[in-house]
Amino acid sequence: MKIVLLGFGGWISNPLYGQTSLLVLNDNSGEYILLDAGEGVLRNMFECGFSEIRKLKAVVITHSHGDHVLGIPTLVQFAKTVKSKIVIVGLRETIDAVVQILKAVSVSNYECCIEPVAVSPGDVLEVGGFRVRFAEVEHTIPGLAVRVEDSGSGRCLVYTGDTSYSEQIVRLSRDCSVLLHEASFLESESTLAKSLGHSTLSDCLRTAVEARNRFVIPLHFGLAEVKIDIDSLPQDITILYPSKCLSIDI
Ligand SMILES: [Zn+2]
After folding, report:
1. Which region among 5-9, 56-60, 226-230 has the lowest average model confidence (pLDDT)?
2. 85 Cα to the center of ligand 1, angstroms
3. Ligand 1 centroid vs 51 CA: distance in angstroms?
């Protein structure tokens, strides 16, 4: 399996970062699933070389904040042109919000081209050759962190969506080689981060140490770019700095 990072910014950040989302590719089938779909996600997919909407087997939406969901109308319109269907996975309230957005921006006949799949923390879903698990996050609205496992090899990654430090995410992430954890705020803003349901790089690394992850990719940067400026980095963990279209074999 392979990860392709489509964006790593938050809602308000350098627009060139792209809003945080990633594709998880199945090496065997060439199919993929998308984790989060903020503004410009289809453009970012094309930029990174993934333009075949029929190979998109599911879109997992972690929560309904705009920077995670506002690319859906364009994906649905595009799917309509090739008579494809977008499987949209999320909490019931997230799916309800997606439908409201499709209605609000007048996507006609959207029912033809979406297949909503409501999930809850603890659920396990098989899609696109992957086994996908979910845990609750600590954010300002209900949301999910997502673990994607290759059904054959068991290799896996975890993507947190938006959250402050959470033991439930540590449990979800245990022994996955790659953790993609949000790090929206600077270390000096850790109290503010927690109060807003977000994380710093230290929160991200604490999770990785406790979950025994090997590689960590901090994501969802705010206006101030996250710097690797903490005093002591944990041994045995490699921090990968994000970039658009960054591709990693797992
Ligand atoms: Zn959010």
Report:
1. 226-230
2. 26
3. 27
Give me ligand 1 centre to Cα 77, in Å.
Answer: 24
Q: How far is the CA of 121 from the centre of ligand 1 (A)?
A: 17
For residue 114, is it within any domain? yes
Looking up residue 165, the CATH number of its domain turns out to be 3.60.15.10
DSSP calls for 197-228: T--BHHHHHHHHHHHT-SEEEEE-B-SSPP--
Which pLDDT belongs to residue 224? 77
Overall pTM surpassing 0.85 (yes/no)? yes
The residue segments making up the domain with residue 108 are 2-244
22 found inside a domain: yes
3-state helix, strand, coil in the chain (%, to 5): 30, 30, 45
Is residue 250 in some structural domain? no
- Give 146-184 pLDDT, tens digit per residue: 999 998 888 999 999 999 999 999 999 999 999 999 999
CA atoms within 13 A on the CB side of 16: 2
- Enter the tokens of residue 186: 């600077």
In-domain check, residue 88? yes
Rounded to the nearest angstrom, the distance between the alpha carbon of 15 and the centre of ligand 1 is 17
Q: How far is CA 119 from CA 43, 159, 203, 235, in A?
A: 27, 16, 26, 36
